[in-house]
Amino acid sequence: MDIIIWSRLQFAMTAAYHWLFVPLTLGLAMVMATMETLYVIKKDEFWLKTTKFWMKLFAINFAVGIATGIILEFEFGTNWSNYSWFVGDMFGAPLAIEGILAFFMEATFFAVMFFGWNKVSKRFHLISTWLTGIGATISAYWILVANGWMQNPVGTTFNPDTVRSEMASAQAFWEVVSNPVAVSKFFHSVTSGWMTGAVFVVGVSCWYLLKGREKEFARKSIIVGGIVGLIGSAAVMLSGDASGIHAAEFQPMKLAAAEGLEDGGRRAPFTIIPGIKIPGMLSILATHDLDGYVPGINDIIRGYTDNDGNVIPSVEKKMEMGRTALDALATYRELRETNPDSAAVARAILDENVQYMGYGHLEKPEDVIPPVGMVFWAFRFMIGIGMLIALVLLLTTWLSWKNRIADKKWLLWTALWCIPLVYIGGQSGWVVAEVGRQPWTIQGLLPVNVAISSLSAAAVKTTFFLFLAIFAAFLIIEIRILLGTIKNGPKISED
Amino acid sequence: MTYELLQDYWFILVALLAGLLVALMFVQGANLQLGNRNLTETQKRMVLNATGRKWELTFTTLVTFGGAFFASFPLFYSTSFGGAYWVWVLLLITFVFQAVAYEFHSKKENLLGMKTFRFALIANGALAPFLVGTAVGTFFCGSNFTVDKMAIANPSAPIISSWGSGWHGLEALAQPHAVLLGLGLVCLTAILGGLFVLNTVDDIDLEHRMRRTVRGFLLPFLCLLISWTAILLIKPGFAVAEDGTVYMEDFKYLGNLLEMPVVIVMLAAGTALILYGIFTGAFGKSKSGFWPAAGGTVLVVMVIFFLAGFCNTAFYPSNEDLQSSLTIRNSSSSYFTLKVMSWVSLFIPFVVAYIAYAWYSMGRKKITAEEMDNKENKY
Question: For A1, A267, B94, B277, which has the most beta carbons within 10 A of its beta carbon?
Answer without folding.
Answer: B277
